[in-house]
């Protein structure tokens, strides 16, 4: 497993639209259908990564706190399931049910969405305002697996600022986690990725 730091989306960039299947409901959904007029949190996750497992319970807690306030959480897995069969959509649905995800868990089979967002790590997260402009990107918090419990501090600080009508602090830090398992031939920024 390779660990990477996220490259972080440029603040102010519009969220790229997508159309992906939800592994739990079986429905195909779009960002425009799911988005919130207050804030939309897009998270790239996967089943097998210890960094994702480390934040899962706190992530669910935060989603259960902020979604009733009008925000929307959306999770996406873009991993190559030939490399990590445990990230197959069947197991994604099981993981979502086991962790009681209160948000959709979408499958990005062709990895187009991860490339559009510039996602690199699991987890990697992006917060967009009511106009779908990026106001926060990067880490969930500063914790790491096996060191201290997840707090979600960086994410909830950004979401609280939005709720209070304040500007989200531009002091943001990259996420760290396992690299998205790219398929052969996928390229980003004109650089081919080899595995």
Summary of the model, kept short:
The chain is an alpha+beta fold and 195 residues long. The protein has helices spanning 31-34, 50-66, 89-99, 112-117, 153-163; strands at residues 3-5, 19-21, 28-30, 39-44, 72-77, 105-107, 121-122, 124-129, 134-138, 176-179, 187-188, 191-192.
How would you describe this structure to a colleague?
Helix content is 25%, strand content 23%. The protein contains five helices and twelve strands. The protein has a five-stranded mixed β-sheet. It is globular.
How are the elements arranged and paired?
Elements: E1 3-5, E2 19-21, E3 28-30, H1 31-34, E4 39-44, H2 50-66, E5 72-77, H3 89-99, E6 105-107, H4 112-117, E7 121-122, E8 124-129, E9 134-138, H5 153-163, E10 176-179, E11 187-188, E12 191-192
Parallel strand pairs: 4-5, 5-6
Antiparallel strand pairs: 1-10, 2-3, 4-8, 7-10, 8-9, 11-12
Helix run count: 5
Residues in helix, %: 25-40%
String of helices and strands: EEEHEHEHEHEEEHEEE
For the largest beta-sheet, the strand count, sense and barrel status come to: 5 strands, mixed
Number of strands: 12
Cα-based radius of gyration, to the nearest Å:
15 Å
Distance between the termini: 11 Å
Please indicate the percent range of residues in DSSP E strands (runs of 2 or more).
15-25%
- The overall average pLDDT, rounded, is 93
Structural class based on helices, strands and sheet pairing: alpha+beta
The shape, in one word, is globular
Unreliable stretches (pLDDT < 50, length at least 5) are 187-195
Strand order of the largest sheet: 6-5-4-8-9
